[in-house]
Amino acid sequence: MSITAPMCESVPMRITTHRRVSDMLVSFNSDPRSAISNEVAPGLFMAVPGVAEFEGVDLEGALYDVEMILDMTGEGIRPTSVKVTAQEGSPPVTGTTLRALRVWDLARAAIPEGLSHGVRTEQADGSFVTQFDPVGDLSDEEVARLRKQGPTDETLGWVAYFYNLAGILGLPPAKQVEVSLRVPRTTASKWVRRAKEKGLIDGEH
């Protein structure tokens, strides 16, 4: 499924998450009163528009807070507005400050915070209901367990997640599987093929 032609539906979905990335606090929030859930990859949904906030972004050696609106565009999930605020003790925002801001790198850090797994089930009347579950992080122990158990349904689910996430973020998908699950390239390729055979990954990508 192409992220440029998402399947959309209105759902009462609110996502509020936050985590620390390096020395920066990243949060994402979407409001069900205005957000529409977009299937940005098979089984992965993101409710947009949403607000991504970054506390303590280092720009030219000073700290700033950044607020970013993420929305669905013709190119996929992209920033549509950015606001930069100097923290106390930091210099005012200037053109030099803005040029130092790596907008897409920040967006890449925020997008995973807004993603949810979704399972769509058909109802008796022909309509569909989607049940959402937030995507959690894998611990080192869980990664080791997945590697040990091999290409089970659970493992292939994570293979599909990392592969599809990389596509959303504009990263090499197979390499993302290799790095995230810490497996050799040949193993990652075999698991990706298995996930495609199960329909977890669009076979055209």
Which whole number gives the mean pLDDT? 81
Ends distance: 8 Å
Rg from alpha-carbon coordinates? 18 Å
Query: In this structure, how is the largest beta sheet organized?
Result: 5 strands, antiparallel
Anisotropy-based shape? globular
Helical fraction equals 25-40%
Write the H/E string, N to C.
Answer: EEEEEEEEHHEEHHHH
Strand order within the widest beta sheet: 1-4-5-9-10
Number of domains: 2
Residue share in β-strands = 35-45%
How many DSSP-defined strands? Answer: 10
Helix-strand category: alpha+beta
Ranges with pLDDT <50 over ≥5 residues?
A: 1-18
Number of helices: 6
Could you explain the architecture of this structure?
The chain has 205 residues and is α+β, with helices and mostly antiparallel strands. The protein has 2 domains: 7-118, no CATH class; 138-205, no CATH class. 33% of the residues lie in helices and 37% in strands. It contains 6 helices and 10 strands. It has helices at residues 95-100, 103-114, 140-149, 153-169, 173-181, 185-197; strands spanning 7-9, 15-21, 24-30, 36-41, 44-48, 50-59, 62-73, 76-86, 115-122, 128-134. Strands 1-4-5-9-10 form a 5-stranded antiparallel sheet. Helix 4 (153-169) packs across helix 5 and helix 5 (173-181) packs across helix 6 (185-197). The longest helix is centred in the last third of the chain and has 17 residues, at 153-169. The protein is globular, with a radius of gyration of 18 Å. The N and C termini lie close together (8 Å). The model is unreliable at 1-18 (pLDDT under 50).
